[in-house]
Design brief:
The chain crosses the membrane at residues 12-32. By secondary structure, the protein is an alpha/beta fold. Helices cover 41% and strands 14% of the residues. The radius of gyration is 22 Å and the shape is globular.
Length: 396
């Protein structure tokens, strides 16, 4: 939740009315208008906004080529002997290969832009080519992060990482007695694989994500216009980072996706809004609230962790369950109002009324899960999160 669409009372009320009729997915064009998309230009350019995401995807290839140009310039500064050694090693061919696979990746980013523009029916100022002397406004890092999420969420290569991190969450949900009658919310759902897997267990599942980088990429997978067959798309997600690479084969290996064809269904819904603005769903039996809220690598994206935990509590029905797994990697640069440690997060959760644990026979409130996140499994470096897992209940 690094940024939000500005919301007002009428918009929230309208969305609440829609929820009464079971409407939880709107065309992207309608969502944009509801979010005040056409009010003030300043509201359109947040780091996770639709316009910024389209701009970044459309400029991916050129931004990458600018970076490659700097790499070639650095190589050209070598002395003659060292430059010759680099040539004999095949370094110039390596840089040429980077240019080729970047062009291949750009086929996917252009397709994401094309679908978004079709659904939105708009043009983005500054889209595409960056003129001489202009500073690029696209965010290359966020586009590359999304490409890695295609691997993590929707490829065979990402399966071991998914299985490791999804397992404790899905194990809890598998013990539910009547999943068809239960509602699950997955905030910070990214490209949606966890929410999709939960829906396959029979739960009425809503994936909630504010980042338009993620939402546009997920829509690219959900749309029968752009994704129709298994392993239809090919990307080279590791090529841009030469560090910790064992070989060129490892560096430039392709990854195909998706390993399954995801589609929105009566049990898999998409809600593209700031989690803090959500309202509890109205139940057919007159209750309000979700039966489960599942947060994975989410709490530490909060600018105000207390508000996030209070919102989780508010959105759950009495007796509802919060399942969490993730680290506490707070946003850099003092963006977060609070950067809490694990003990403090648990104290806040219990303070708002949650009862944690026990996880197993040890009666501990939480459990540590060692895991990776969008990792390159063939790299010379591993970043291991010692993520914390807990199951908490809202009693009243």
């Amino acid at each position: 939740m690094a940024t939000t669409f500005n919301s007002d009372g009428p918009v929230l009320f309208f969305l609440f009315v829609l929820s009464l009729f079971g409407v939880r997915y709107l065309p992207l064009r309608d969502l944009v208008h509801l979010s005040g998309f056409q009010r003030q230009k300043s509201e359109l350019n947040g780091p996770f906004s639709v316009t910024q995401a389209i701009l970044s995807y459309s400029q991916y290839e050129q931004l990458s080529q600018r970076e490659l140009k700097r790499m070639r310039a650095s190589y050209s500064k070598l002395g003659r002997a060292h430059k010759r050694t680099g040539y004999d090693l095949g370094y110039t061919k390596k840089l040429n290969r980077l240019e080729e696979v970047t062009a291949s990746n750009a086929e996917v980013t252009r397709a994401i832009v094309g679908l978004a523009k079709t659904e939105l029916g708009l043009e983005v100022d500054g889209e595409g080519w960056i003129g001489e002397g202009q500073s690029p406004r696209g965010d290359l890092g966020k586009v590359r992060e999304t490409l890695r999420h295609f691997v993590r969420d929707w490829s065979d290569e990402g399966r071991p990482e998914r299985e490791e991190i999804f397992a404790p969450i899905l194990e809890v949900l598998k013990h539910a007695s009547s999943p068809a009658a239960m509602k699950v919310l997955v905030p910070g759902s990214g490209l949606g694989r966890l929410a999709w897997e939960i829906s396959r267990l029979g739960f009425d599942t809503t994936a909630n994500e504010i980042s338009s980088y993620m939402n546009l990429a997920l829509r690219f997978l959900l749309s029968p216009t752009t994704t129709t067959t298994l392993d239809q798309h090919l990307i080279y997600p590791y090529a841009h980072w030469f560090s910790h690479s064992r070989s060129n084969d490892a560096l430039f290996r392709p990854v195909s996706f998706p390993d399954v064809i995801p589609r929105l269904t009566p049990t898999f819904n998409l809600l593209e809004r700031d989690f803090i603005t959500l309202l509890p769903p109205l139940r057919s039996e007159g209750e309000v609230g979700y039966d489960y809220i599942v947060t994975m690598f989410f709490i530490d994206t909060s600018l105000n962790a207390i508000a996030t935990i209070e919102q989780i509590y508010t959105l759950l029905r009495p007796g509802g369950t919060w399942v969490n797994l993730g680290p506490l990697l707070w946003s850099p640069g003092a963006q977060a109002s609070l950067e809490l440690n694990l003990e403090e997060v648990i104290a806040v959760a219990e303070g708002v009324g949650f009862v944690l644990g026990p996880i197993d026979a040890s009666k501990k409130k939480t459990m540590t899960v060692d895991c990776e996140y969008t990792a390159d499994r063939q790299a010379m470096m591993k970043w291991i999160y010692r993520a914390e897992f807990w199951v908490a209940t809202k009693l009243t």
